[in-house]
Amino acid sequence: MARRLARAAAKREKVLVVGDSDCDGVCGTLIMTRFLTRCGANARPYIPARQDEGYGIQPSHVRRAVDNEFDLIVTVDNGISAFQAAETARALGIDLVVTDHHEPQGKLPDVPIVDPKLPGSVCYREYSGTGIAYLTCWAVARILGVPAPEEYLDLVALATVVDVCPLTGENFSLARRGLLQMRANLRPGLQALLNGGKGLPITGRTLSWILGPLINSAGRYGNPLLAYRLLSARTVEEAEPLARELKRINAERKNMVEAVSKECLARCDGSAFPLIASPDWPEGVIGIAAGRLVEAVLRPAAVGVICGKIVRFSARSIGEFNLTAALEECQSRTKALKAFGGHKLAAGFSIDYANLHLVRDTLNDIARSQLQPEDRARWIEIDARLEAVPTPAEVERLDFLEPHGNENPEPTFYVHDRAVNVRSGAGWFLVRLNSGLKFFTSQPVEAGERIHTAISLAVDVYDGHKEIIGHAVDVRTFLCARDSLMRQYMLWRRGKDISEWAERIFSELGLERTGFNAKTSLFLSPTFLRFGAVRSGQDL
Fold it and tell me: From CA 78, how far away is CA 46, in angstroms rounded?
């Protein structure tokens, strides 16, 4: 693979780089195109719009490349299931190479492939599509004896965080180096998205919650080349009109997501794995709508768009329920999936409309048999209990753990204290505790309440003065620990009085004060799901 790309650069061949339309695909396409161009190739990007052309490289793209006299096609963040495109390339006599990071679907296209999830692979498996493109370019650089593509590490960091890849091992190393590069020299397009970026800390939260949605909106609800042009802009002046257009598209996307999410929730029938589809929804918002539906109903769900006789779904999951494994089992049982792929918690698949009921029934059956009560729990892992307000220097040292994201969450601290002052605005509350610690939350808090809070910490600088500020992950006026419930259950069974909260939980679980009680799970209680704690208050 690397030798073929090196030959294309050395011989100044015409190379078509076909990428995916999301942030990962766009970043990787930019790296591959720019690097091959730097090495001498005549590289051109092509990013299909999903709503018009579907996902990944298609036979039509191969035929177009041949018509335009390209010598080589290379994919980025797609291609591991491009069987028809590979056959077309072989028939038309054009070389096709694949760089991807998705799971293979049993068989492989008959072309050179770089994918850490290939059968028998012993390397680190969790790279983003951009990470794979970067490492492929790095290998090409070694063959050609040219400088490695270090200048693109900021894009590797952005894609790795936004694509929700695990920030572990080599991913964390790449993302950390890219984050520091971003802080030292922020790309003009990102400056434009952040309105200059001055005063705003560049963290994993900035990448995943601010930059990622804006860049993804181009592919989901517009033209993905808009995001490519923004990230490749040489100056802020060149990037600003592109950033304004992205922000406009993102605002439209948000409105559409709200409308689709409300309709999905209204149509949800209580099944174990809801599948909801419509011909009226844009394909670019169904993934976000599926995520919203999962949050609301606490079970895996898929939202789809009906395109003639085909339905294309985007699915999201919860807990330990593995979507890719469920789709593989569904395909084994029904042979009804035309294509599928993705990750444990996020995946996509397409089916014939005629098979909708069959696939829906099968996925519901799989979910009913595999979902566990604890999958519905929204876990908050507490790292430490705060007994005093830390110093700014102590909090600043937490930055060595950035960027935060999947499998590298922000450190979360437990605080049990009284709220002495509360200020509020549109959708926010600023709470000052008796200890002096301040934190923001979207949950209502009243002055005088003694509250349990899970917060992350940051340093706020104003007029040269540093102050600790917290951001609440959750706020509760009551905390019900599992160990305490077990003790109260024993008292209750002996006829003793217990708290009304414990009685409510026992009632929700269908437990009786006398007689035999079958084994059950605390996670079947809505009250415990909202107020419960697996670790005791003393341990927090």
Answer: 12
For residue 534, pLDDT over 90 is answered with no
Contact 187, 154 (CB under 8 A): yes
Residue 416 has a pLDDT of: 95
The rounded distance, in Å, linking the Cα atoms of 287 and 39 is: 37
Q: Which residues of 47-112 form beta strands (DSSP E)? A: 72-76, 95-99
pLDDT (mean) for 177-192: 97
Q: Do the bridges between strand 42-46 and strand 72-76 make them parallel or antiparallel, or are there none, so unpaired? A: unpaired
What predicted TM-score, i.e. pTM, was given to this entire model? 0.88
Gap between the Cα atoms of 149 and 156, Å rounded: 11
Q: How many CB atoms lie within 10 A of CB 494?
A: 8
Closest alpha carbon to 215 in 163, 145, 147, 269: 163
3-class SS of residue 243: helix
Q: Regarding predicted confidence, which is higher, 324 or 53?
A: 324
Q: Which amino acid is at 495?
A: G
Read off the DSSP letter of residue 105: B
Q: CA-to-CA distance for 313 and 296, rounded, in angstroms?
A: 18
Contact status, residue 452 vs residue 414, Cβ threshold 8 Å:
yes
Better-predicted residue by pLDDT, 482 or 138: 138
Residue range 7-12: mean pLDDT, rounded: 97
